[in-house]
Amino acid sequence: MLTGEEIISKLRRRWITFYMAFRYGRWSLRRLVYGCTFFFCTTFTLYYLFFVLEMIPWNPAVDHWCQREKAPDYILQPEADEMTVVTMFLDLGVFKKGEQRFAYHSPYKYRKWMRVFGRLANRVVAYIESDDDIQFFREIRSCLPATLTKIIKVDRDNLSSFKHLPKISRIYSRPSYPKYHPNTVYPEYTCAMHAKYDVLERSASEDYFQTPYFAWLDVGLFRNLDGTDFPIFKMVPPDKFHPERIGFSQVWPQDPVRIPELIMKEKIVWVAGSMVLATQEYMLNFTRDYKLAVKELLDQGLSNSDQEVINAMYTAKMRKPHYIKIKTYLCHQGQLGLYGPDARYFCLGYVCKNAWEKRVPQPAPVIRS
Ligand SMILES: *[C@@H]1O[C@H](CO)[C@@H](O)[C@H](O)[C@H]1NC(C)=O
Ligand SMILES: *[C@@H]1O[C@H](CO)[C@@H](O)[C@H](O)[C@H]1NC(C)=O
């Protein structure tokens, strides 16, 4: 029989042993706390870097679909209203896109979206800055005949829009200038948006593929197709597209009596910059007018992305009589599989894809070997 005192001293010894082990032993509490903190912080940081920011130091995997499928011959033949698709990729690093806390875009994200060009059967002119990205784009296009792709190495310092960089930086550094991520925060982003019209002008005047139409296409317009199993496709101008117009997707209705200053400072958008469609002559005139408008606005201390510039250009205050008329394309919710802001920003791209799908016997047959 143990006496009460013995029981207490036994428990006390047990407790001391337990306590010392916990504190100083291999799995001491302190180590456990530090270990867990380290583990969760590392996991969270890696998760954040990889899945939220997508700061991934290698290129995404490219699907070489031609190992399983064959492109139908007719898709590669030029149509009477063939369009040259112009795009550009400048590595702007990771930047904040939009005002939500975790809204960031990384080069990896753009490189993933770019993969859709591997199944775009149009003639493509791509302006790319680094040799690695040129190599990557070549790999993306490798299942299509080499004659459909023209890659041009550019240097952002040689694009006339980047000459405005110091002026734009000065405007954005004013504390009173409204801040929108990245439009009025990141001057290189603004220059890259203006540079679309530099390369559109270059490609329309060079006319590598001798096509009647030219279109700017953002690398990310068909981002929703990436990672899905979609057949090789092509874009043609929408049915009854008026060749004396310039086509855009409409984001919001236009109010032509708004003053340009308000549009530029409050980021008011009318048409999306994700796709621009016109014939050669009209594209050349539009790009020239666009560049003059950018200068005119900068001289008034106003800067924002191309979407605001175009909205400002076509207001009663800035619009010139010779400006090319804009034809807007508006998709309703759910049309062509577009929902939410996608229906507003990406409409024209999907309308052009659909215009081609309506022409072919079945929606883009896939021949599997
Ligand atoms: C850019 O311009 C510089 C100087 O004019 C020239 O040396 C360089 O080759 C150009 N780069 C490209 C890619 O055109
Ligand atoms: C394009 O610009 C040229 C030169 O200013 C002009 O002669 C021509 O009429 C313009 N074309 C259109 C369609 O506005």
UniProtKB/TrEMBL annotation:
Which InterPro entries does this chain map to? WlaTC/HtrL_glycosyltransf
Alphabetical keyword list? Membrane, Transmembrane, Transmembrane helix
Q: Which domain of life is it from?
A: Eukaryota
Segments crossing the lipid bilayer: 32-53
User: What single Pfam family name could you report for this chain, choosing any that match?
Assistant: HtrL_YibB
Protein name as annotated: Glycosyltransferase family 92 protein
Report the source organism. Plakobranchus ocellatus
Taxonomic path = Eukaryota, Metazoa, Spiralia, Lophotrochozoa, Mollusca
